[in-house]
Amino acid sequence: MDFKVMLIGTSQLSFPGDKKGRFQKAADDLEIFLKDLGASLVVYPETVITADDAKRSLKTVHAEKPDFLLVQNTSYTAGFVAMVYGKAGYPLGQWAIPEGADDGIVQFNSFCSINMHMSIIKSYYPYDRIPVKWFFGEVKDEFFAERMSITIKALRTIKRMKQSKIALIGGIAPGFNDLYFDERDMLKRFEGMEFNRLHEFDEIGDRAMSYSESEIAKLAEEYEAKAKKGVQPCSVRHKMMNARFTKAYNDFLAEYGYDAIAISCWPKFMDKFDYSICSVVATLNDQLVPAACEGDVPSAVSMLMLQEITGKSSMCMDMSAFDEKDESVLMWHCGPAAAEFCCDAGYSLGGNYSGKAHIPDEPPICCGVARDMVFKAQPATIGRMTGNFDQLLIASGEFLDENKPSFIGSRGWFGKLTVAGEKCSARDMVATVLDQSLPHHFAMGVGDQTNVLMEIAAWLDLEVIKKTAYTPYMKR
Questions:
Q1: Phi, psi of 290 (to 5 degrees)
Q2: Which of 66, 235, 406, 412 could be 349's S-S partner, Cβ–Cβ 3.0 to 4.6 Å?
Q3: Structural contact between residues 8 and 71, judged by C-beta atoms closer than 8 angstroms
Q4: Helix (H) or strand (E) holding 92
């Protein structure tokens, strides 16, 4: 269990309810509930009544270093206590319990207490922007359980992000200037994260070309066997090259232990090797090592975030077209998507454009290897942090009809759109992206992860990007 919750009970002497009994039941039920989520519980053994009691409890809190500090106002509690826990330095929850009676003497006045405590924390420390989440009810109530499950998933994701190692290999692709970022912003947002931007393109290329033919022949056969729809002619000649770079990246990751990488995939591989690395990127994503295209570090970090939430592969997409007939947008990229997103028909190993000038009146020049695949119909979510790591785009929807025409590459029409939980037309989605000048890459994960991403944004103090309604006039 890699996530620890610490529970503290606060109270006051003047309310007649069974405070000790209710707190003990809550602690017992919470321990069982958290165990099912892979989390553990530590219970502070004393009831906190005064500010001095709260200050003494912090010694135990600091010794335990919980990932989440949950304070149950078992009954109405002095406001001075809120000021202690508000500045304790841990993600904080305030929990109220039901009264257990409809009339007569107030037994606990618990709900009123968390109302007061949350107000005190905000009003006394307005510039600290201390995040506090409220909870109400018994542990087994849906009201409590849903909110706590989201919190555990969000804070666990943030914790793992702060422990991660990220690398940029080969720099940002030339001309992709909207992907530039200040690494200091990222490392401040995810304190403890390690980032290396110094790996050169040739580290991978030299490693790939050092292997003997016999070393990679079996790997090449295994990789092609996974392509249910076969290998297209433009990719046949790259069979061994693809295996070389697959092994090179896997050996590189085994040596350095990176959790996510951004690869300068274009145009260096095409210029030096006449080869497209898209399918290797896809394989890394299959293996739960998020790999973002074109040196896009913010997308790599966002993909890792989505992978931690879902436990499944994520991907980096462009938004390449929109269709107002079914209110959808086309999420497309050259061919780096994980098999997690592929329709049942499978994928083929096809070609990417060469990145070189096309000759008039001749077929487009292309080279392999890229995954040509259509995404299966399923819910999915865009969750992409901006280059300054101060905003988060949250857009959910569903991949639609697999038979709808689309461009060659890894792709799917994405409909039933929402932005930050608000229904969104295709035209409004276009306005949201363009009017707000968002980067042209979109990290995507499976399922509707709106609630968890909204909570992550709250704990990290990220601005959630809101829907922009389309207008025929320019907005600034």
A1: -55, 125
A2: 235
A3: yes
A4: strand 92-96
For the chain, domain boundaries: 3-161, 163-464
DSSP strands (E only) in 328-408: 328-333, 348-353, 366-374, 379-385, 391-399
Q: Dihedrals φ, ψ of 353, to 5°?
A: -65, 155
Cβ-count burial 210-220 (b if 16+ within 10 Å, e if not) = ebeeeebeebb
Contacts of 283 (CB under 8 A, 6+ apart): 223, 246
Whether 170 contacts 262, CB under 8 Å: no
Architecture of domain 163-464: 3-Layer(aba) Sandwich (3.40)
Tell me the residue length of the chain: 476
The 3-state DSSP composition of the chain as helix, strand, coil percent (nearest 5) reads: 40, 25, 35
Q: Which fold has domain 3-161?
A: Rossmann fold (3.40.50)
Axis-axis angle for helices 213-225, 239-256 (nearest 10): 100
Question: Would you state the structure tokens that stand for residue 474, as one six-digit string?
Answer: 């320019």
**Predicted model pTM:** 0.96
